[in-house]
């Protein structure tokens, strides 16, 4: 989201909504529950995930500041089938569904930008999903690090990309659809080859081109998921 668009949303939510905070690890919504409003993320990260019948967690998205929670529900009224969790301390602004829908309907440009953003995110999601479905373990981990670098990366020294998100081996495994043990093994291989490294609490991508060469499909052109 561009700064001007983000400022517009923030100003509207600040006027129409109220502040709501969540602690790290707190569940925001469970499958089958109806949201009580639309949330705009001011600060922190949220995770959207599900749990399979065998008990395996699958993370579908990590939402960052400027993202909405439950906009899909507001626009389509589809029943929620996912868990939403505060991945970090989370500061949001919450507004009633009806108020948000009235605002969107009165702002054609905003609706267009929202649809455009959704389509860009969908393209990135499809490209990543191809690798996760068809690729081997090393290709899956490479795809996840590329996606995270584009979504949360900040340029560092010597063309490094610092992924400014609190990533654990377990979380990366749930993004890649792998067991924690397999994900850890592949991450350690990348670290040993100095393709990625760890700087304090953040992962650093040192050689993005080598990661891209490990993909079994072309990397997504867009920079974010939904």
TrEMBL record:
<keyword id="KW-0238">DNA-binding</keyword>
<dbReference type="InterPro" id="IPR014710">
    <property type="entry name" value="RmlC-like_jellyroll"/>
</dbReference>
<dbReference type="GO" id="GO:0003677">
    <property type="term" value="F:DNA binding"/>
</dbReference>
<dbReference type="InterPro" id="IPR036390">
    <property type="entry name" value="WH_DNA-bd_sf"/>
</dbReference>
<dbReference type="InterPro" id="IPR050397">
    <property type="entry name" value="Env_Response_Regulators"/>
</dbReference>
<dbReference type="GO" id="GO:0005829">
    <property type="term" value="C:cytosol"/>
</dbReference>
<protein>
    <recommendedName>
        <fullName>Transcriptional regulator, Crp/Fnr family</fullName>
    </recommendedName>
</protein>
<dbReference type="GO" id="GO:0003700">
    <property type="term" value="F:DNA-binding transcription factor activity"/>
</dbReference>
<feature type="domain" description="Cyclic nucleotide-binding">
    <location>
        <begin position="20"/>
        <end position="104"/>
    </location>
</feature>
<keyword id="KW-0804">Transcription</keyword>
<dbReference type="InterPro" id="IPR012318">
    <property type="entry name" value="HTH_CRP"/>
</dbReference>
<feature type="domain" description="HTH crp-type">
    <location>
        <begin position="135"/>
        <end position="209"/>
    </location>
</feature>
<dbReference type="InterPro" id="IPR018490">
    <property type="entry name" value="cNMP-bd_dom_sf"/>
</dbReference>
<dbReference type="Pfam" id="PF00027">
    <property type="entry name" value="cNMP_binding"/>
</dbReference>
<dbReference type="InterPro" id="IPR000595">
    <property type="entry name" value="cNMP-bd_dom"/>
</dbReference>
<keyword id="KW-0805">Transcription regulation</keyword>
<dbReference type="Pfam" id="PF13545">
    <property type="entry name" value="HTH_Crp_2"/>
</dbReference>
């Amino acid at each position: 989201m561009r700064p001007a668009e983000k400022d517009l949303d923030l100003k509207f939510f600040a006027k129409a909504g109220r502040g709501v905070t969540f602690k790290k690890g707190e569940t925001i919504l469970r499958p089958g529950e109806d949201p009580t409003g639309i949330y705009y993320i001011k600060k922190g990260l949220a995770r959207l995930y599900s749990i399979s019948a065998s008990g395996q967690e699958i993370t579908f998205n990590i939402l960052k500041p400027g993202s909405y929670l439950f906009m899909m529900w507001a626009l389509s009224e589809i029943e929620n089938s996912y868990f939403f969790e505060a991945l970090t301390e989370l500061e949001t602004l919450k507004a009633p569904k009806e108020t948000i829908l009235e605002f969107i309907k009165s702002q054609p440009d905003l609706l267009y930008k929202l649809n455009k953003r959704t389509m860009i995110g969908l393209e990135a999601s499809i490209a990543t999903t191809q690798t996760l479905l068809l690729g081997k373990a090393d290709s899956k981990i490479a795809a996840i690090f590329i996606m995270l670098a584009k979504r949360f990366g900040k340029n560092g020294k010597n063309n490094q990309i610092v992924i400014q998100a609190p990533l654990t081996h377990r979380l990366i495994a749930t993004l890649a659809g792998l067991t924690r043990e397999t994900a850890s093994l592949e991450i350690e291989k990348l670290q040993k080859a100095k393709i990625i490294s760890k700087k304090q609490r953040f992962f650093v991508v040192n050689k993005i081109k080598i990661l891209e060469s490990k993909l079994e499909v072309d990397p997504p052109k867009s920079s974010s998921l939904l």
